[in-house]
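Before we proceed, please read the two lines closing this message. Let me know whether the structure tokens fit the sequence:

…
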Amino acid sequence: MDINEPMINEEIRDKEVLLIAEDGTKLGVMPTRAALEKAEEAGLDLVKIAANATPPVCKLMDYDKHRYEQSKRERDMRKNQRIVTLKEVQLSATIEENDVQTKFKNAVKFLQDGDKVKVSIRFRGRQIAHADIGMKIMQDFASRIEEYGTVERRPLLEGRNMIMILAPKAEKKSFAEKSQERKEKKAAKEAQQQNAPKEAKPQPKKKVKRESENMI
């Protein structure tokens, strides 16, 4: 038996258990044999869900269906989970324009795939004395990439390395999506106004004649 799997049915050897119905109702403490009989009558399994409790807690359920639904939820979670990785693009203090273009294309591809990009420059020998050149290269690279990514961490010098982190830019909504959102908000506002209780219009006051007006 898999140690991660709970005990079910005849695998449960405890003298008595606290039984929970399929709908979550507590049925009380009873001998395990009686709990097994209830499971058999209901066409369900007796599953130990809290082994360390005193007495252990067992629940009536369709265990095969439970396992199927659980594995389906786990598959859906893995499918919807996006693992962001950190890719790297290496520049240099003496990089040529053609190389910048190549590095730019690689960085754009990484960002469009949803990954972050670490842009680095390694200063060799006396190049470290001209770190300002590296800073200009980094700033130029960031300005080129701004359509596809944002600077999550500005360029910083760490020893002989200058490092900048880029993150994918949030997707912009299309004109159609924005238009649909505006329509939905407008419709919701109109519905709210229609359902709002209407204020009663003030009734004109009746003119009360004074006794002097009735006298001739």
Q: What stands out?
A: The first helix runs from residue 32 to 42. Residues 212-216 have pLDDT under 50 and may be disordered. Residues 35 and 41 are 10 Å apart (CA to CA). The beta strands are 16-20, 26-31, 45-50, 57-61, 86-91, 116-122, 149-158, 161-168.
